[in-house]
Predict the structure of Sulfhydryl oxidase.
Amino acid sequence: MATGKAPKLPSKKESSTVSNSSSSSQFIPSTNPSEPPSFYKKLDPPDVAQLGRSSWTLLHSIAATYPETPTTKQQQDMKSFLHLFAGVYPCWYCGEDFQKYIQKNEPLTKSQDDLGKWLCEAHNDVNVKLGKPKFDCNFWKRRWKDGWDEE
Ligand SMILES: Cc1cc2nc3c(=O)[nH]c(=O)nc-3n(C[C@H](O)[C@H](O)[C@H](O)COP(=O)(O)OP(=O)(O)OC[C@H]3O[C@@H](n4cnc5c(N)ncnc54)[C@H](O)[C@@H]3O)c2cc1C
């Protein structure tokens, strides 16, 4: 869904100054140690779906900021990362299937577009398993990098 100007992740050329609207980053201890401070929302731990949405956001965003022409080391690092990620994924059966997928389908890391499309296909493999529609991988970059806004 287009929502006006697409928010973008910062590129390396942009300032890395952290801007935080809250000027106070001090730790304020609770007056009652058995209760969290009242300004914490009491959110529950993630379920498989919530974990999945957050994880896909991370993975596709990593592809969106991966170099267009990565070095050999960057390609090796990305392959190692995906193997390790699958091995420590907090939903064990999801991680096991992802590991099997990676073994059958070696991650494509020669370019940003290769990685983005590979991840899109990996995500589609899970979509099919869960009975969800496939995403058209020609649009991965619009969904995760450029946004849908018309020029
Ligand atoms: C590695 C991994 C393995 C998983 N395995 C399982 C499993 O075995 N069982 C299980 O129940 N859940 C699994 N999940 C979670 C599952 O994939 C979903 O994240 C979860 O069901 C929530 O789905 P959703 O409909 O909110 O959208 P998600 O599938 O989380 O997608 C989020 C957004 O990504 C976009 N999108 C959808 N498909 C693609 C694509 N192919 N390429 C690019 N963008 C796309 C869409 O905009 C969508 O709204 C796994 C998640 C991960 C990261």
In short: The longest helix spans residues 48-65. The CA atoms of residues 16 and 116 lie 25 Å apart. The chain has five helices and no strands. Residues 48-49, 52-53, 55-56, 60, 89, 93-94, 97-98, 120, 123-124, 126-127, 130, 132, 135, 140, 143 surround flavin-adenine dinucleotide (CB under 6 Å).
